[in-house]
Amino acid sequence: MSAFVDSLHEVFAGLGRIQAKRMFGGHGIYHEGRMIALIAQDTLYLKADAESAGFFDALGLPAFTYQRAGKTASLSYRQAPVDVFEDRATATLWGRRAFEAALRSGTPPKARAATKKPSARKAATKHSKR
Questions:
Q1: Helix, strand, coil % (nearest 5) of the chain?
Q2: What domains does the chain contain, in order, with CATH numbers?
Q3: Three-point CA angle 67, 69, 73, nearest 5°
Q4: What is the CB neighbour count within 10 angstroms for residue 5?
Q5: Which residues pair with 69 in a beta bridge?
Q6: pLDDT tens track of the chain, all 130 residues?
Q7: What is the pTM of this model?
């Protein structure tokens, strides 16, 4: 991981535990199993939605965009304000906004490895062989 990605643990300390996971040449930043940010080319983008977009618009912060099949596409992530890196209270505020947007998105938390249970059919077959 890059030093920039590692520094986010300190930046968002007021929010609580975060995790960084490699993805698509960058990193996804997760809090409580939900993706709240992404890193692309050492730029932090925070999860945004219709309810939080005004905060980003007021500061002129652009959406994350990328090229796909010769066209520009965007995701619901907006560039983080520079103040996030300079003030822990500001980082916590913006981190909470991103987390709340992730909650409103309805996307379930990233699945954790679960213990696989045998199907009802396998269980019935197993018991009938006794």
A1: 35, 30, 35
A2: 3-128 (3.30.1460.30)
A3: 40
A4: 17
A5: none
A6: 688 888 999 999 999 999 999 988 899 999 999 999 999 988 999 999 999 999 999 999 999 998 889 999 889 999 999 999 999 999 999 999 999 999 999 867 765 434 344 444 444 444 444 4
A7: 0.80
Identity of residue 81: P
Q: Length of the chain in residues, anyone? A: 130
Distance CA 79, CA 45 (A): 4
Cα 91 versus chain centre, distance = 15
- Other CB atoms closer than 10 Å to residue 64's CB: what's the count? 20
46, exposed or middle or buried, with CB in 10 Å at 0-12, 13-18, 19+? buried
